[in-house]
Write a structure and sequence with these properties.
This protein is of the alpha+beta class and 405 residues long. The chain folds into 3 domains: 3-133 and 180-267, no CATH class; 137-176, no CATH class; 284-403, Trna Endonuclease, Chain: A, domain 1, CATH 3.40.1350. The chain contains 12 helices and 21 strands.
Length: 405
């Protein structure tokens, strides 16, 4: 990647444009327009720039890539490589994106953003399919023929061949590679053609040549929902998963300008919540039951939904995750009221508010004085890094269980 067209920022950081800098006014305009189309949820426009919020990931605007990284430390110059790898690890664990083949080494070696690693992986997967041989399928084709072939379509034949009586407008079966799976892959390649400006360009052009005879069709989310993957096309699974991400997150030529956008953005609050659940689920013992986002009726049509509910033998515990930095060692009034309701509704013995750790220490369990039930709540802090590396998830899980004792 050309580092002149690559910017790394952290959540809640500000980025301002300038005429002489990498981030310019036309990039800003495209981002604001995109944000408006999504209820202004991704970031906040400020004077001459953008203030990022809790959404992290990658935004590619034309040739410029902006990578927004999570950050849970007090450093004025945080380690971007470390937090990039933390984000990548969370996405792997949460199965948000198929990045099993993207390693920390690859990202460092080529100075890639996570998005570039995706592009590389997508092209590699397509290359594997081509070398194995692209599958063919039967499909119906309607066209003018100089001889009767298949079924004659009378109404269309009259409409199209009233002058040229020597032709027949027929519907017949064709056995070739111009089917929906390849049209999806081709659409993904065409999007990358508008975005890739680096050393992947030659590989992209070579693969585009293999697909240039296939139809270019408009593809939407509903088309992926109807797609059936089976044993015959199983080897296409990873390629189609990545193509889906590329196609559904692409915003071509917004009306404010000519810039094309591709975005992969994730809410860190949601990601942290799911990450904690998945590592608990992975490392739990047979006597522990872990459930995620339990929803139950609360009042009229409103529902109550804690993040994580643990059942250990006969005891119930509720964990509510919070991806933010707090200095206070006491829960806020609103958090206490929320956890109190969880205690009552789920008959939980203890509730835990779980935050990322900087230099805080866990609070002691405090008791709710309601009918002398003895339900308790505390603040817990989990350090996901150690010595510049990501901590083992099994160790994290053991620490969470220790916090509930």
């Amino acid at each position: 990647m050309n580092t002149k067209n690559f910017i790394q920022v952290f959540e809640h950081q500000k980025l301002r444009y300038s005429d002489s800098g990498v981030f310019r006014r036309h990039h800003f305009d495209a981002m604001v327009k995109f944000n408006e189309l999504h209820q202004n949820k991704y970031f906040t426009p400020i004077h001459n720039g953008i203030c990022f919020g809790s959404y992290v990931g990658v935004i590619q605007i034309g040739g410029l890539t902006i990578e927004i990284l999570p950050k849970a430390d007090n450093s004025t110059s945080p380690d971007a490589n470390l937090w990039q790898n933390i984000l990548l690890n969370m996405l792997k664990v949460c199965k948000r994106i198929p990045v099993e083949s993207v390693s920390e080494t690859q990202l460092k070696k080529r100075n890639h953003s996570i998005l570039d690693a995706y592009f590389d992986l997508y092209l590699d997967e397509i290359d594997k399919l081509i070398k194995k041989g692209l599958i063919k399928k039967y499909r119906k084709n309607q066209s003018n023929q100089n001889s009767l072939k298949g079924k004659l379509l009378f109404s269309k034949n009259i409409c199209k061949n009233s002058v040229h009586k020597e032709y027949f407008y027929c519907e017949h079966q064709v056995y070739d590679g111009n089917h929906f799976l390849h049209q999806i892959i081709y659409k993904g390649l065409l999007i990358l053609k508008a975005l890739i400006k680096n050393d992947l360009k030659d590989k992209l052009n070579r693969l585009l040549y293999e697909f240039h005879d296939f139809d270019h069709v408009n593809i939407q989310k509903k088309d992926f929902d109807k797609l059936v993957m089976n044993r015959k096309n199983y080897e296409y699974r990873k390629t189609i998963e990545i193509a889906k991400i590329i196609i559904l997150n692409y915003s071509p030529s917004l009306s404010c300008g000519s810039e094309n956008l591709l975005t992969l953005l994730f809410d860190m609050n949601t990601l942290w919540e799911e990450y904690i659940f998945r590592i608990l689920q992975r490392h739990k013992t047979h006597e522990i039951d872990v459930t995620f986002q339990n929803s139950d009726k609360f009042w009229e049509d409103k529902k109550i939904r804690p993040d994580i509910v643990l059942k250990i033998k006969n005891d119930i515990f509720v964990i509510d995750t919070k991806w933010k930095i707090v200095d206070s060692m006491r829960p806020s009034d609103n958090d206490l009221k929320q956890m109190f309701v969880y205690n009552l509704h789920w008959n939980a013995k203890k509730t835990l508010l779980l935050y990322p750790k900087i230099n805080q220490t866990d609070s002691e369990f405090g008791v709710f004085h309601y009918n002398n039930l003895g339900n308790k709540c505390k603040l817990g802090f989990l350090d996901i890094t150690n010595g510049g590396k990501i901590r083992n998830s099994k160790i994290l899980v053991n620490e969470i269980f220790e916090k509930l004792k």
